[in-house]
Design goal:
Blueprint: E1 7-10, E2 15-18, E3 25-27, H1 31-45, H2 51-67, E4 71-72, E5 74-75, E6 78-81, E7 87-91, E8 99-103, E9 106-110, E10 116-117, H3 158-167, E11 176-180, H4 187-198, H5 212-221, E12 225-230, H6 235-246, E13 248-252, E14 262-266, E15 270-274
Parallel strand pairs: 1-4, 5-10, 11-15, 12-15
Antiparallel strand pairs: 1-2, 2-3, 6-7, 7-8, 8-9, 13-14
Helix pairs in contact: 5-6
């Protein structure tokens, strides 16, 4: 059974549910949560969960979520607060449901963040950080000890360092980093490395969509938008990337919710790779 307070609303009014034991949080409309309900129902009854019953369960949970008086900040990989004391939370996405909280006094690993992190398809864990050797100016090797996390070079150009630090901020605006160079210069490898340092996922790079709406929908499910081998860009997609990097509103209709469209405020770091002869508008 789900705990009484498992269903809740985000500050934007979107309904979420936190699953017991695994401590993962999904949007109520997420198909992954619906699969979890079907699995639990079949384990208990030996019968499949009908679509009619699923509709009533999710409708009841949505009501409970919106009647819950407390609203939570829900982030993907990174979130934070500005008052009373600024703090940045980074979701490690591991089996222990740990996150890192960074304040003006330092950082620590916690299991009880003041924000909630949404689980999305394809997320991979970040390695647990460790304090570096005081005599070593490089980033700690723990950041690259995981087989799925590429090893860091000794240094990055200042523009890349600034993009990495800015991307950890809970709020925008964020810079757009464009990696250019000839074929075989390592643009794609570098882009994969940068994405894996901040927000590792199964498919770190995507081809650039041709429609603005597709870009916007990707931004609702990913912390970092990384597009590889950009050779052309429509005006509408260029406008969408600019809006997402500085912050924009997007209206989405959630399945099963027949009320007004849900309005989300989206702001994301963006990474592009392109050939030397391509210039953005």
């Amino acid at each position: 059974e789900l705990p009484e307070d498992a269903a809740f609303s985000s500050t934007f009014g979107q309904a979420f549910v936190t699953l017991p034991h695994v401590n993962q949080t999904f949007a109520l409309s997420d198909a992954l949560f619906h699969d979890w309900l079907r699995d639990r129902f079949f384990r208990r009854t030996g019968q499949p969960l009908t679509s009619h019953a699923l509709h009533h369960i999710t409708a009841t949970l949505r009501t409970r979520a919106h009647c819950n008086p407390r609203r939570y900040i829900v982030g993907i990989r990174t979130a934070g607060r500005l008052l009373p004391d600024p703090a940045v939370y980074i979701d490690l996405c591991n089996n222990d449901s740990e996150s890192v909280v960074v304040t003006k006094d330092g950082w620590e690993i916690t299991k009880t963040p003041e924000v909630v992190f949404r689980s999305t398809r394809g997320q991979l864990p970040l390695p647990r950080p460790h304090l570096p050797d005081s005599q070593t100016p490089r980033l700690p090797d723990s950041l690259s000890s995981d087989s799925q996390t590429p090893r860091l070079p000794d240094s990055f150009p200042p523009a890349i360092q600034e993009w990495l630090l800015a991307s950890l901020s809970p709020t925008g605006p964020f810079p757009i980093l464009i990696l250019t160079g000839p074929n075989g210069s390592g643009k794609t490898t570098t882009a994969r490395m940068l994405r894996s340092l901040l927000d590792p996922v199964v498919a770190p790079l995507h081809p650039l969509p041709s429609h603005e709406r597709t870009v916007m929908l990707l931004a609702t499910r990913h912390r970092i938008l990384a597009f590889d081998h950009v050779t052309r860009m429509s005006n509408s997609v260029a406008d969408a990337l600019c809006l997402i990097s500085t912050g924009t509103g997007i209206a989405i209709n959630e399945p099963g919710d027949h009320r007004d469209a849900l309005h989300l405020d989206i702001c994301r770091p963006i990474l592009l790779t392109a050939s030397e002869d391509w210039k953005p508008r």
